[in-house]
Design goal:
The complex is a heterodimer.
Chain A: H1 3-22, H2 37-50, H3 74-90, H4 106-134, H5 140-151, H6 154-164, H7 167-182, H8 186-199, H9 207-220, H10 226-250, H11 253-263, H12 278-282, H13 288-291, H14 294-318, H15 322-339, H16 348-357, H17 363-376, H18 378-383, H19 387-404, H20 419-424, H21 433-457, H22 467-492, H23 498-504
Helix pairs in contact in A: 1-4, 1-5, 1-6, 2-3, 4-5, 4-7, 5-19, 6-19, 7-8, 8-10, 9-10, 9-14, 9-15, 14-15, 15-16, 15-22, 16-17, 17-19, 17-21, 17-22, 21-22
Chain B: H1 10-24, H2 33-46, H3 66-79, H4 97-124, H5 138-147, H6 150-160, H7 163-178, H8 182-195, H9 203-214, H10 232-255, H11 259-266, H12 282-299, H13 331-351, H14 355-373, H15 383-393, H16 397-412, H17 424-445, H18 455-477, H19 480-483, H20 487-520
The chains are: A mainly alpha, B mainly alpha.
Chain lengths: 505, 521
C-alpha cells in the first residue's frame, strides 16, 4: 500500500473519531445560568461581533466581564470574530447582543463543532502529519503507526470535541513552530510559536525551551557574526508578529495593559478545583492556602517553577539539538503544570503535546503518560456527560498504541535511555529493568481502571464528597511527577546515537 | 482448496478497532427502524406468542419470521435491566438514553457473529506465497473489506438495523460451503431464512448447488451430471435439517392456526414498485425513461398534460408511482423478470458446477438479479451482493474490478439514508476511507498487468464525485431546492443504477467465461 493512501486513511479515521466524539454532549449543556466553556466561546463571538474592539476586554454596560469575559490573547478574539461573521450569515440569533445568552440548539451545536473541526483540519492535523512523516525515524510503516497514535490521543479529542475548546489551534501553532525548528527554519518557527502564544497565554509553558533552543543555537553559531545575525532576525520576527497581533490595542497603553491584566488573573488563587499538580496534591496533607498569604503563595510557586525548569533549560542551552529540544519541551511544560500558579486540569494538554512527539522514541513511557493525562481529566469528562467517549477512546488508544508501536517489547535499558544511570547506581541489586517497568505499567493501568470504574459507579461517602476526584488527581499527580523526573534524567543522559537507533529499527 | 490460513494478531485488532468506532455512534441519528425494533422488543416481551403477529398498536408491526421474534424475545430479557419502560407496547417512540444505549449495544454485541464469520471467510482465502507484508495479504484485505464495510457500518450503527448479525450467519454459511462442510452450511442458511426472509432471494443458489454438488456425489468425465451417483441419504439429511428448522420456527404458529396471518405480515404486497427513495435498479431507470418520455410527449404536443397522473411529477417522494407512457409494472411481472434474470446463473451451476466458488458466484447473481428486478427493493439490499463479492475480489483480478465498481456505486447510493447534516462528515469520511482502502489494497494485491479499471469505468466513478458535490453542496444552495426537492435523490439513484446494472452484466460475462474454460482444457 502506498504511503499517501495510508496517511489519508489515518487522517480520515482521526476525523471520524473526532466527529464521533462531537456527537456527544458539551460542557454546561442545558445548565443555566453560567453554562460552560461552550457558552463562553459562543459569548465571545457575540461580544467581538457586536462591540467595538476597544470594549472587548473592558467591563462596560454591554460587556459583563463576570459572565465569561474574554481572558485569552487577541488571536482568540479575532478567531471568535471570524466565527461570528459566519454565524451571522447562517443565523443572526446566534450572536445577537444580550439576547443570545445561553443560546442552544442542535444546529448551533453543529456549527460550533464544525468550527473546531475546520480549525483542526487547517492547523493541527497537517502539522501532525508533516511532523510524523519528516521528523520521526524508522520505516514508513512505523511513521504511519506513530501518526495514527498521535491523531488518536484521547485527551485532546475529548476536550476539544467533547468538552468544547479550541486547544487544537494553539497546540497546532506550537507544533508548526516545533516542525519548522526541526527542519531548520528557525525564523518561521519562531513566528508560528509567537502566533501560538498570541492565541493562548498558556503556551508560555513551551516558551522557555523555544527560547533556550534558539539562543543556544545562536551562541553555537558564534556570538558575533552569523549567530548574532540569526538572533536579530528571530527577535525581529517575534516582535513583528506580536506587534501585528496586538496592533489594534497598541494605540492606547491602557488598552494593552487591560488585555494583559485579563490574561494573567493573579487574584484567583493558587489553584481551583481538583488539579493533578503539586499544590492541590499537597493540599490533602497541608492546607497551604490557609497558612500562606496570597502573595507568598505566588512567590513560592514562582520560585518552585523556576527551580524545576532550570536544569532542563540549562541543558538545552548548552546542547541545542532537536532531541534535547523535545525533551526540554516536556520538562518545561510539566514543571509549569506541576508548580505554577492557577493551573487548570486541561493545561496537561500542553505537556501531552511534546510527549506525543516522543511516541516514536520512547513509546511505553509516552503512552503511559498520555493515558494518565486523559485519566486526570476524568472528573471533568464525567461532569460533561462524556463517559462513553472517554471509555471508548481511552481503551482504543491504549490498545492500538501498545499494539502498533509494540511498546511493551521496547523497554530495555537502552531503549528507555537509562543505561548510564544503571551503571551509576551499581550498588543496587541487579534487576531486569524492562520487567520492572512493564509491571509498573500494568499496575498503574489497573489502578487507573479501578479508579475510573469506582468514580463512575459508586457514590462517595457523605462526609467526603470529593473523595474520588481527589484520588484521581493524586494518582495522576504521582504519574506526572514520576514522568517529570524520568524525562529530566533522560535529558541529562547521552542522546541516542544514530547508530543504535538504526539498529533498533 | 488452500490450507487454513493463520490469522495473526491483526484480526482481533481490526475487529476491536471497528467495535470501538461503533460505540462512538451511540448518540448519532437513528431512523424509524430504531422504533421498529423497540416495538418488537415490547411485543415479544409483554405479549403471549399467540398475539405476536396480531398486535398492531404501533404501525411497525412484526414482519420478520418467527426466529427473529425469538431473538428479540431473548434481547428483551437483557433490556429489562436497562429500562423497563421500553418494553411496553403503548410507549410509542420511546427513546430514553438507556434505551438508546441498550439498543446500540445490542447491535454492537450481536456483531460478534459477523466478526466470527469474517474470520472464517479469511481462513478460506487462497494466499499467494511470498507476500510477507501483512497489509498485502489477501486475508488481511478481506478482513478489512468485511469488518470495516462502509455500508454495514452506517446501516447498522447509525441508521439502525441488525444486518451485521444476519450477514454474519450468511457469510458463515458461505464459509462452511467453501470449507466443504455442506450440512452445517445448509443448517445455517435454514436458520437465516427463518430470521429474515429477504434471503429467499439467494435461496435458489443454495437449493440448486446443494442438490447438484452435494446430493450427486460424482460427475461424468465431461463435467455433466451422473444420475447414478444420486445419494438419497444426503437428500434426506438436507431435507430433515431444513424441515426441522422451519418446524421449530413456524411450528407453533401452524399449531395455533395462525400461518396465513404470519405470512400476510411477512409478504405485504400492498407497497409500491419502488421504495420511497428509489433503489438504484432497473426500475429506477424505467421510471426515469417514463418521465422523460412524458415530458417529451408534452413538449411535442403528443400528450395532454392534464391527462397525466398527478403523482408522476413528485416521484421519489411518494411511494405510489403511476407510469404515464410506459406500461405499469405489476408484482408478478417483477417476479417473472427476477426469475428470468437468475435462471442462467442457476442453470450454469447445475450444468457445470465450479465448486463452492461457482456457487458463490451464483449466489451473487441471485442477489443482484433480485435487487435489479425485485418489487419494492430497499437500497440496503445491495449489501447482500457487496459482502460476498469481497471474498472473490481478493482472489481474482477481474472480480476485483467488478467489486470496485459495484461497491463504490452501491455504497454511494446509501448516502441518502443519512440525510441529517450532523452525520454528513461521518458518512463522507467513512466512505472515503473505505474507498481509498479498497482501491489501493486491491490494486496492490493484483499488481502486475497494468491498471485495474478501464478508462470508461474510471470516468464513471469520477462522475460519482461530481454527482456527490452537485447533490450535497451545489443543489442545497441553488434555487431548484424549492421547486424540485426530489432531484438529488433522482440523480443519485439513476446514476448509481447504471453502475449496478453494469456490474450485474460484467458478473454474468464472468460466469459465461468460466463456462468456456473447461471446454478448452
Amino acid at each position: 500500500m502506498k504511503t499517501w493512501s495510508l496517511v489519508s486513511i489515518c487522517v480520515l479515521l482521526g476525523v471520524v473519531v473526532r466527529w464521533g466524539v462531537s456527537l456527544n454532549s458539551y460542557s454546561g449543556a442545558g445548565k443555566p445560568p453560567m453554562f460552560g466553556d461552550y457558552e463562553a466561546q459562543r459569548h465571545w463571538q457575540e461580544v467581538t461581533y457586536n462591540l467595538p474592539l476597544q470594549e472587548w476586554y473592558f467591563n462596560t454596560t454591554d460587556n459583563d466581564l463576570n459572565y465569561w469575559g474574554l481572558d485569552y490573547p487577541p488571536l482568540t478574539a479575532y478567531h471568535s470574530w471570524i466565527c461570528a461573521y459566519v454565524a451571522k450569515i447562517i443565523n443572526p440569533d446566534w450572536v445577537e447582543l444580550h439576547k443570545s445568552r445561553g443560546y442552544e440548539s442542535p444546529t448551533h451545536k453543529l456549527f460550533m463543532r464544525t468550527t473546531v473541526l475546520v480549525a483542526d483540519l487547517l492547523i493541527y492535523i497537517p502539522a501532525v502529519v508533516l511532523y510524523c512523516l519528516y521528523l520521526t525515524d524508522g520505516s514508513s510503516k512505523k511513521k504511519i503507526s506513530t501518526l495514527l497514535c498521535f491523531l488518536l490521543y484521547p485527551g485532546l479529542i475529548l476536550t476539544d470535541y467533547g468538552h468544547f475548546q479550541y486547544n487544537g489551534v494553539s497546540l497546532g501553532f506550537a507544533l508548526w513552530g516545533i516542525l519548522a525548528l526541526g527542519l531548520g527554519w528557525d525564523v518561521s518557527g519562531s513566528m508560528a510559536f509567537s502566533l501560538a502564544l498570541n492565541y493562548k497565554q498558556m503556551e508560555l509553558y513551551h516558551a522557555l525551551p523555544f527560547f533556550c533552543y534558539l539562543m543556544g543555537k545562536c551562541i553555537k553559531a558564534g556570538p558575533m557574526g552569523r549567530g548574532l545575525f540569526l538572533l536579530v532576525r528571530i527577535a525581529a520576527t517575534v516582535l513583528a508578529t506580536f506587534a501585528l497581533c496586538w496592533l489594534p490595542f497598541l494605540s492606547d497603553p491602557s488598552q494593552a495593559l487591560q488585555v494583559v491584566r485579563r490574561i494573567f488573573p493573579v487574584a484567583r488563587g493558587l489553584f481551583e478545583d481538583k488539579v493533578a499538580n503539586t499544590w492541590c496534591s499537597l493540599n490533602t496533607l497541608i492546607k497551604i492556602r490557609s497558612i500562606l498569604s496570597g502573595d507568598s503563595q505566588l512567590y513560592l510557586s514562582l520560585a518552585c517553577t523556576f527551580l524545576a525548569v532550570l536544569p532542563s533549560s540549562f541543558r538545552l542551552l548548552t546542547k541545542p539539538t532537536f532531541w534535547h529540544f523535545k525533551l526540554a519541551l516536556v520538562n518545561s511544560s510539566l514543571a509549569f503544570f506541576l508548580f505554577s500558579y492557577q493551573v487548570h486540569e486541561k493545561s496537561i494538554l500542553l505537556a501531552a503535546l511534546p510527549v506525543c512527539l516522543l511516541l516514536n522514541d520512547l513509546p511505553l513511557i509516552a503512552i503511559w503518560f498520555l493515558q494518565a493525562s486523559t485519566f486526570s481529566m476524568l472528573p471533568l469528562f464525567l461532569k460533561d456527560g462524556l463517559l462513553v467517549p472517554y471509555v471508548v477512546t481511552s481503551l482504543a488508544f491504549l490498545f492500538f498504541s501498545l499494539y502498533l508501536l509494540s511498546a511493551l517489547d521496547h523497554c530495555s535499558e537502552d531503549e528507555l535511555r537509562m543505561g548510564a544511570y544503571n551503571k551509576l547506581l551499581f550498588f543496587l541489586p541487579k534487576m531486569d529493568l524492562a520487567c520492572v517497568v512493564r509491571w509498573k505499567f500494568y499496575i498503574s493501568v489497573a489502578v487507573m481502571a479501578v479508579l475510573s470504574i469506582v468514580s463512575i459507579a459508586l457514590v462517595p461517602p457523605p462526609h467526603l464528597p470529593d473523595l474520588f476526584p481527589v484520588l484521581v488527581s493524586t494518582t495522576a499527580f504521582l504519574h506526572f511527577f514520576g514522568t517529570f523526573v524520568y524525562f529530566n534524567v533522560v535529558q541529562f543522559s547521552e542522546p541516542p546515537s544514530r547508530k543504535s537507533q538504526k539498529k533498533n529499527n | 482448496m488452500a490450507a487454513r490460513v493463520d490469522i495473526g494478531f491483526w484480526f482481533p485488532a481490526l475487529a476491536l478497532g471497528v467495535s470501538f468506532l461503533k460505540c462512538l455512534f451511540i448518540n448519532a441519528y437513528h431512523s424509524t427502524d430504531f422504533e421498529v425494533h423497540r416495538n418488537w422488543l415490547a411485543i415479544t416481551h409483554s405479549l403471549p406468542v399467540s398475539r405476536w403477529y396480531h398486535e398492531n398498536t404501533s404501525e411497525w408491526t412484526l414482519d420478520y419470521p418467527p426466529l427473529f421474534a425469538w431473538f428479540e424475545f431473548g434481547l428483551s430479557h437483557v433490556a429489562q435491566h436497562f429500562d423497563r419502560n421500553m418494553l411496553q407496547v403503548e410507549n410509542l417512540n420511546y427513546a430514553s438514553p438507556s434505551t438508546v444505549l441498550f439498543q446500540r449495544l445490542s447491535v454492537i454485541f450481536t456483531d460478534v457473529v459477523f466478526i466470527y464469520a469474517a474470520k472464517e471467510c479469511c481462513r478460506c482465502v487462497q494466499e499467494q506465497k511470498g507476500s510477507r507484508d501483512v497489509l498485502n495479504r489477501p486475508s488481511f484485505v478481506l478482513a478489512v473489506l468485511l469488518l470495516w464495510n462502509f455500508g454495514l457500518l452506517i446501516v447498522d450503527h447509525i441508521h439502525f438495523q441488525y444486518n451485521g448479525f444476519l450477514f454474519g450467519v450468511l457469510l458463515l454459511s458461505v464459509a462452511k460451503h467453501l470449507q466443504s462442510q455442506h450440512l452445517q452450511g445448509a443448517l445455517l442458511f435454514a436458520i437465516l431464512l427463518n430470521l429474515k426472509h429477504i434471503y429467499l432471494y439467494v435461496a435458489p443458489a443454495y437449493g440448486i448447488y446443494l442438490l447438484r454438488s452435494y446430493c450427486f456425489t460424482q460427475d461424468n468425465k465431461d463435467g455433466s451430471i451422473r444420475w447414478m451417483s444420486f445419494s438419497p441419504l444426503r437428500l434426506l439429511a438436507l431435507g430433515s435439517i431444513v424441515v426441522s428448522v422451519c418446524a421449530l420456527s413456524f411450528g407453533p404458529f401452524i399449531a395455533m392456526g395462525q400461518l396465513p396471518q404470519v405470512l400476510s405480515r411477512l409478504f405485504p404486497f400492498k407497497r409500491g414498485l419502488c421504495h420511497a427513495y428509489w433503489a438504484p435498479n432497473i426500475w429506477a431507470l424505467y421510471n426515469v425513461l417514463d418521465k422523460g418520455l412524458a415530458v417529451l410527449g408534452v413538449r411535442l404536443k403528443l400528450l395532454e398534460e392534464a391527462e397525466l397522473p398527478r403523482a408522476s411529477m413528485t416521484g421519489g417522494l411518494v411511494q405510489e408511482f403511476q407510469h404515464s407512457v410506459l406500461l405499469s409494472v405489476s408484482p408478478s411481472a417483477t417476479l417473472v423478470c427476477t426469475l428470468l434474470s437468475i435462471l442462467p446463473a442457476v442453470a450454469s451451476i447445475w450444468l457445470r458446477p465450479c465448486g463452492a466458488r461457482g456457487f458463490l458466484r451464483c449466489l451473487l447473481l441471485c442477489a443482484l438479479g433480485s435487487f435489479m428486478f425485485g418489487w419494492h427493493v430497499h437500497e440496503k439490499a445491495v449489501l447482500i451482493a457487496i459482502l460476498p463479492l469481497s471474498i472473490l475480489a481478493v482472489e481474482s483480478r477481474e472480480d476485483a474490478r467488478i467489486f470496485l465498481v459495484l461497491t463504490t456505486t452501491g455504497h454511494y447510493s446509501l448516502f441518502p439514508l443519512l440525510f441529517t447534516p450532523t452525520e454528513r462528515p461521518v458518512k463522507v469520511s467513512l466512505m472515503l476511507m473505505f474507498t481509498i482502502f479498497s482501491f489501493t489494497a486491491l490494486r496492490k494485491l493484483h499488481s502486475g498487468q497494468g491498471p485495474l479499471l478501464r478508462p470508461l469505468e474510471v470516468v464513471y466513478l469520477l462522475g460519482l464525485v461530481v454527482v456527490a458535490i452537485a447533490c450535497e453542496v451545489v443543489f442545497p444552495l441553488s434555487p431548484w431546492q424549492q421547486r424540485l426537492p426530489f432531484l438529488p435523490l433522482l440523480a443519485t439513484s439513476v446514476y448509481c443504477s447504471v453502475g449496478v446494472c453494469y456490474s450485474f452484466l460484467r458478473l454474468y460475462v464472468r460466469l459465461l467465461q468460466r463456462d468456456d474454460k473447461p471446454k478448452q482444457l
